[in-house]
Amino acid sequence: MKISLRIALAAVALAASTLAPAQTLLNASYDVAREFYKDYNAAFIAHYQKATGKTIKIDQAHGGSSAQARAVNDGLDADVVTMNTTTDLDFLAGTGVIAKDWPKRFPNNASPTTSTMLFLVRHGNPKAIKDWDDLTRPGVQVIVVNPKTGGNGRMAYLAAWGAVRKKGGTDAQAAEFIAKLYKNVPVLAKGGRDATTIFLQRNIGDVLVTFESEVVSVEREFGAGKVDAIHPSASIVAENPVALVERTVAKKGTGELAKAYLDWLYSDEAQEIAARHALRPRNPAILKKYAGTFKPIQLFSVNDYFGSLAEAQKVHFNDGGQLDKLYTVK
Question: Considering only CA atoms, which of 14, 97, 34, 41 is closest in space to residue 265?
Fold first, then answer.
């Protein structure tokens, strides 16, 4: 009888273990990364199950990066944040949501991939747009993200400003150029995907300034041949930083899984997935392998002309900064 009872209890315990819910992660990320993380999540789930025997589930939340950061700060229980500018993570570090030394928690300044800003124009490039100067011509409408709500928009602004400096221009000349460019902006998008929707579904604008990775997304969603990608003479390096949300992983007990999720972004398999989505991998061999995707372009860093993204945030994007002086939201 005792043996039977033991067997019965073991069976109950086994059944309970098989019915236990899979551990779930929530990744709060920026707009145009949704396709990359869809593929990455599937690969990571398979890798993790093979390595540990555990079944997990990963949920995604996407939007303008700054809007996402505010949502996490205000209580969204994301286990990890994967953004497109360091200022959004600095904001979360400042409020204690992520570690203050988050850039040191993972390699390459906690940025497993980078990107840059390109132009998407309508097929055939009817307005003959080739470089930044063309965005200020009369009759050219430019679609960009609002720098106040998305890292995509901040990087577009800084890329345009820095392109003037790269050619030997002064900050005063860069400010004049930005003012002219934004006069050609009919509407500011909330995030990168919203900008693409405005450009392709609402058919507004002649050129979309957005991340290099959005070229692949457009072709997958809307079909090849809808847009041409234009590589300007120079553009900015945009790091894609990641971090654990300490507040959430402590509450949910997901710290080990969340760290494994971010660590694996640096694996060869993940770097390959990133490259296929036109995110520039940190792995030099894989970057070289995808040379056809990543065309030669003069790249400059944020530090070259702005000191740091934190400094650029204060000078350009905080209330009363350069953006407010040069552009009035329509």
Answer: 41
Claim to verify: residue 208 and residue 254 sit in the same structural domain: no
Total domains in the fold of the chain: 2
- The tokens of 296 are what? 């030669």
Q: Tens digit of pLDDT for each residue in 29-50?
A: 998 899 999 999 999 999 999 9
The whole domain housing 263 covers 2-114+239-289
Q: Give the count of beta carbons closer than 10 Å to the beta carbon of residue 34.
A: 16
- Residue 224: other Cβ atoms inside 10 A: 9
- Bridge partners (DSSP) of residue 61 are 28
Burial of 232 (0-12, 13-18, 19+ CB in 10 A): buried
Predicted local distance difference test score (pLDDT) of residue 8: 47
Q: Residue 27 and residue 37: Cα distance in Å, rounded?
A: 9
| 319 in the same domain as 192 | yes
How far, in Å, CA of 264 to CA of 288, rounded?
Answer: 20
CA separation for the pair 108, 105 (Å, rounded): 10
Phi and psi (nearest 5°) for 142?
A: -115, 130
Residues 10, 82 within the same domain: yes
pTM of the model as a whole? 0.82
- Give the per-residue pLDDT at 149: 86
d(CA 284, CA 31): 26
Residues 213 and 284 occupy one common structural domain: no
Indicate whether 104 and 18 sit together in one domain. Answer: yes
